[in-house]
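Onboarding guide, step 5: your first structure request.
Type a short instruction followed by the sequence, for example:

Predict the 3D structure of this protein.
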Amino acid sequence: MSVRLAPIVPTARAAMLLALAAPVALVIGATRPDAWLIAPLTGLAVFVLVLLDALWAGRLEDFHVSVPGDVEVGAEATLSARAQLRGGRTSGMQVALECDPRLAPGGRMTFSLAPEEGGWRANNPFSPSRRGTGQVKQAWLRWIGPLGLGARQLVGDLDREVRVWPNIGAVRSPALQAFLKDAQFGLIARRMRGEGTQFESLAEYQPGMDRRRIDWKSSARHVHLYAKEYETERNNQIVFAFDCGQAMCEPIRGMPRLDRAVSAALATAYVALKGGDRVALFGFAARPEVSTPFVAASGDFHRLQRAAAGLEYRAEEPNFTLALATLAGRLQRRSLIVVFSDFTDPTSAELMIESIGRLVSRHVVLFVTMADDELEGLSTAQPDDLETLSEAVSADLLLRQRALVTRRLLQIGVDVVEAPFDRIGTRLLDAYLEVKRSGAIG
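The system replies with structure tokens like these:
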């Protein structure tokens, strides 16, 4: 880190002391004209105290800021700073960092260092709000003298890059790992017997089995009830299509809807890869932007994560007609297409419904959207005044319009998943497993 030594600066305490002393000195000078020197001498005394206090603070020997190179959007990360002084007595040390706004609100982090054996140190947590590459550009270090009147300040250029990746915390969660080990899509790649459409074998009928699975001919031949077991199809094609337009870039609880959709999709993609299916990503706004080949091995999951990191935030309306027509032209066989999008009114959703409707005849389509908790909160608010009542009526109208669009999607044969942002991943995984068990893809 290149360092530029800044001059001695007064603290807020010194400014307050000068502000309190100045009126007293002026009153004395006004009542005693022969004592007019008191005013400038008071200011000079404060200045000398500031200078001496800053010198007593000691001399900086070492200053280092450690910045993580890779973090996940929405996840808590930590950067650390440490400093070491030579001589003097310091009453406090503060660090300020200039950074990309995606790393901290307003592009600024400020925190204090705590004394430890051999120096000063602090760990500052932060949570990135958007994907991409953010920079930590400059660092300011200020250490204050024992009187709290003067401080020394140092400015350094950092120019460190922080790569913000999609959040795959759900993939690492103990609940999902336990599911993968114990459930039908386990790490040992057991077959999904008892469900699906491909006949696998006969097994002795057990109470609780579906009676429609009884093989009456085999049962009559063996004079014992036998049921058919099926194997769920593998090697299905799953495409996660992301609307990267303006509506999906709006934040929900501090993180864009697009990033929450990406996290849910990657968790489901990981399960799909473990289950033997093939997964691809597709991103679009005014035009198609990201399209990956199908990934078949769970060991290549990082390719999907890297591709998802390339989904840009676009402040423009998505072109569903062009995007979904392009996607349909690239698919050579029946696939499950999971579309992540949002809409504000039926008019803006008209082209979306029409474009998705063209896919239904050949593919299985799953439409995923996040419930708007802000609208729901406004709709259920107590109408204490006219403004609140007006907001509640408008919010209720928008919610009814959203329900109308959802019903139209269901009518044309699209499965719709709508849930709060914190449950969208679980609901999507359940919907995927249900489609897979039904054998609708193959």
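Each response can be followed by summary notes, for example: The chain has two domains: 2-10+57-164, 169-175+233-438.
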